[in-house]
């Protein structure tokens, strides 16, 4: 039911310095787009139509800051940053854009006047899931922070037709179905058919007048799509440029007319394959030709685009590093080193030495993992056949490096007929960074030990961060409003303002308000769990949350074992004063990762069993909603009491979910791994549940080949857990379902689940005890929030600007 809106009904908003439209103006804008962009009548419009019209109205408001940033960057000749990443895990864009432009309330009012509910429209938007997990989400936070801090920045990636698969559970097992976000038009992107480049593959390299020339055997066209990303209060914007694959040959009309439709469509299908799907592996390389081609496709298109833009502004390519910084998000775009050299030498006549110097001064490389199995390597055979010219360049980079430095035999980009992409990225970058303090030290000691000795100034640390706009203001309005009222709104731009919240931890009245905000979030989540899963949970129970990709090193299995032990103990003494808990799990496994899929199955079987037990029904529930994604994270994180960060020490490079949960007032139970170390240092050891072996301790403990057996024999609890699983308590229809899993727990416990079990159990009971004293729990939770300002990705970006990119902010103040 539409109602008239008067000019005076535009709500006062907090955003200053931004000319913002009134409710009436936005309402008219939405109706205009409904009619003229969508050709729909307001009376016969679906939720989709309203969402598209609203998105177009908001998008119009993004153009002003986007144009202004673009123009200022051209006019001032400012240095530009290019972030090359195979993943951008963006999630939904509508609400984020509304919040950053200060239009949230205005749009809500405009839609209400048309009888529409903003939250329904927001929920209608599919997640842009062009990433797997932490690495892709970090890239998305960085785009938003660069737009907030004022960095002239482009992200470059692939416009995957199908993002990360959708996860369903069938009989508790993960089933993957394709994700189809582009089945509806994506309102945020602008096709840029004029920005298109030819990318070659295969063929051979030949000498022409003393110069190497690559004659590719195949070519595809990379065609650009741009999405603007506005920063907080719309003062600046960055651009996400995604490449789609198109054929380079003209449509074969003759074949088509002769009835050979398949042959006529073949070139198109082949080119499209490059941007068809996101590889669903996280931390395990794919090793497939198509993946190598995708990596080169994105990287080559990006570098051609960067050089074209550079040459439109500047003349001497020798000055490239003065005006351009290119950051490689992991080794996935590491072919950038040889590709940039090839473009400079083969297409712009630069000599070898200068090309190498220019490329190295321009490139920076971020390492995101220490797991040796996760480091990309390509067989020289594959590299030589897909990218023959690059293989020559790589060989010569390697020979140059060998000549320039006394290298130990373990160093060398090409070894055992494989190209080690980490070593290539290291050697071709002026800076190499890890993503947490511990990780960066371990990078020096392990994967790049020898290269670090040769280049001791190259490795730096840039501890990850998360954007407080999405991960507080958008996802947690209850706490955001309380923060605004208590310490002012400055925290949104400068998260260090949270420090001023610290004294309020002692204030009983504030603690009550803080607890009320958390409880409201928990009630909302409980409602959603009831509606979507039919599970009844108690909002006064402790909400204990582990959300992340499924991986053995992240040890969801440890949490599952502890859940079983807790249930077993609760059943034996239901009246022993237990702290009621809801254990939440969320996350996807790579489709081919058998062990991770078995763990998912077990968690679901355990959930089914426990949730059906009338004895413990008021004490323990296990909730594993399928298809965990960015939007689900936004629902879960504000409602968390306890954050599970329990990876085997030395394995999680940083973690970023750990930061989001701390920021939202959860206490962490965790190991000394990744950024947990910094979280604990900052929030204080008293406000963190620490357990488990240290990274050093893990290495030592592994030397005892009986580490698992000895730990199990020493732990009554763990023995009972394994016994219950082996007996088929959680899989009565197939009692031996988990015999393999239990056998591995005894004999192949690579991630030391058994060795850390008792310590974890004790830390969990300490959490139980504290939760029974809400005053103390809430005081510590408030201190977690107050001391988490460091974990803003704005701080991370300023670190890259100062240490790696040598770029100032384009914003005054
Ligand atoms: C990925 O999400 C991460 C590392 C990888 O090597 C790949 Br491939 C994907 C994650 C790390 O596991 C996290 O610890 C880290 O916080 C995140 O990258 C962002 O740096």
UniProtKB/TrEMBL annotation:
Its cofactor is pyridoxal 5'-phosphate. It catalyses: [(1->4)-alpha-D-glucosyl](n) + phosphate = [(1->4)-alpha-D-glucosyl](n-1) + alpha-D-glucose 1-phosphate. It comes from the Bacteria. The modification N6-(pyridoxal phosphate)lysine is found at residue 660. One of its GO terms (biological process) is glycogen catabolic process. Keywords: Allosteric enzyme, Carbohydrate metabolism, Glycosyltransferase, Pyridoxal phosphate, Transferase. Its EC number is 2.4.1.1. One of its GO terms (cellular component) is cytoplasm. InterPro entries: Glycg_phsphrylas, Glyco_trans_35, Pyridoxal_P_attach_site. Pfam families: Phosphorylase (PF00343). GO terms for molecular function: glycogen phosphorylase activity; pyridoxal phosphate binding. Phosphorylase is an important allosteric enzyme in carbohydrate metabolism. Enzymes from different sources differ in their regulatory mechanisms and in their natural substrates. However, all known phosphorylases share catalytic and structural properties. PANTHER family: GLYCOGEN PHOSPHORYLASE, GLYCOGEN PHOSPHORYLASE, LIVER FORM. Belongs to the glycogen phosphorylase family. This is Alpha-1,4 glucan phosphorylase. It comes from Aquimixticola soesokkakensis.
